[in-house]
């Protein structure tokens, strides 16, 4: 009898697939953040929550289909509830590290706000805010990967206990 191999949390196949899926979600989130700022005339920090919600739907579908090989699990409702719970944690991580890194850079370290005009466009990008946003998304990526791998797309018994509690 062969020994049972325990799957590592950070196996290359899942990590690469999740990176591609999360990268797609990050692009969607950044583009929607920019559009939300322009359309509704709100600040970049106020656009984090609505742009995160736009990326949430796309993120669930792509993560389920491609990242953790959960496409045929027949537990979509369960995974959706757990995905939403992880998304709330991730949203908090994104918000805290985005705003925190911006304040660290500008108020504590005294970095100037750097802006760049996109070529062939009237759009001006605040590079300092963008860097802070990417920092927040990076921290969110790590927490999301670990939580989705060990909680969302894994049978933990949590959903069944939650169902009994709600009933």
TrEMBL record:
Domain GtrA/DPMS transmembrane: 18-98
Keyword Transport: no
Main location: membrane
Membrane disposition: Multi-pass membrane protein
Keywords for this protein: Membrane, Transmembrane, Transmembrane helix
Coiled-coil positions: none
Protein name: GtrA family protein
Organism in which the protein naturally occurs: Dyadobacter flavalbus
